[in-house]
Design goal:
heterodimer, A: mainly alpha, B: mainly alpha, about 65% helix
Amino acid sequence: MTIDRALEIIAAHGADARRWPADERAAVLALAADPQVAAALAEARDLDAMLADWAVAPAMGTIDLAAITRQPQQQAMPQTASRGWILGGAMAAAIAGVIALAPARDTTSTQIASISSFSNATVPSATVQGGPTGSDAEAFAYVFTPTADEDDLI
Amino acid sequence: MSIQPVPPPVVPASPLPGLMARVTAGETAAFNELARTLQGPGLRLADRTLNDRAAAEDVVQIALTRLWTLADRYDPARGSVEGWFRRIVINLCLDRRRALRLVAPLEAADHVASDAPDPYQAAVANDQRSRLDAAMAHLAARQRAALVLFHGDGLSMAEIAEMLDATPKAVEGLLGRARMELRNLLAVEPAE
């Protein structure tokens, strides 16, 4: 326990040792005779008293309970079937959307993931030249190892 | 002569879980009883956090409405009714933090009349309280919330952290800065 930590605890928790962290209480108390710690404790006591009065003083107010109970109570959605179907449907719709919006492959040149806005993605991981009829390069393009940015996109 | 061990004091079980179960079943009488128990502490928490009595009333009205309309979302396994309600109030207060009134100058609290029996003592207490209220207006809502939860409700750092979606260490820092700001604000002599 350092003096600084003791001062930090007193600054946040106040002067009442019962409110200090249990595992540090004894160590702070052992430093109580230190002039800096003693001064901090005295100062914290005054503020503690003011804050206790401030925090517990009752607050007045009018609440219209009848207006509340006139409202219908809401029933939570069952946890099992409904939510499962909604989540499943949303996921299926998302997958269908991705497939429908995917661009058709170029017949002469296929470039995978060349996105200029990514600083380190200017070099594509694979480029395929030639027709779509099935070359070794095209086969390779389907089993490429993605770059970090491509990985993020996936 | 043998010494009989003193049995521990019997702490009566809180009636709130039972009331909450009846509220969930739609019993308005149970809701009224529960609301009467919760509205005082709720108003105090909202009033201190927002530093605005009218806004505090609005917050507690909304919080109790949620307690009624969304009663079946309460899960006793996740905490007490009071804790659940306190969290609703805190969330509503912090959501309103942008709509807070402009802070009053600290000097505005210098001269406050009092009708208490001992005019001098009452004036001193009233002046101190008014200066503290004015100083509080300079703090952030989260700082005031942490102060009232710590000094008013006696919650631990971990419990406050859960209310404020923070870590206990962050709450310690929040309280430390709040208390330091208050000390500095209260140390400023009022303008003559």
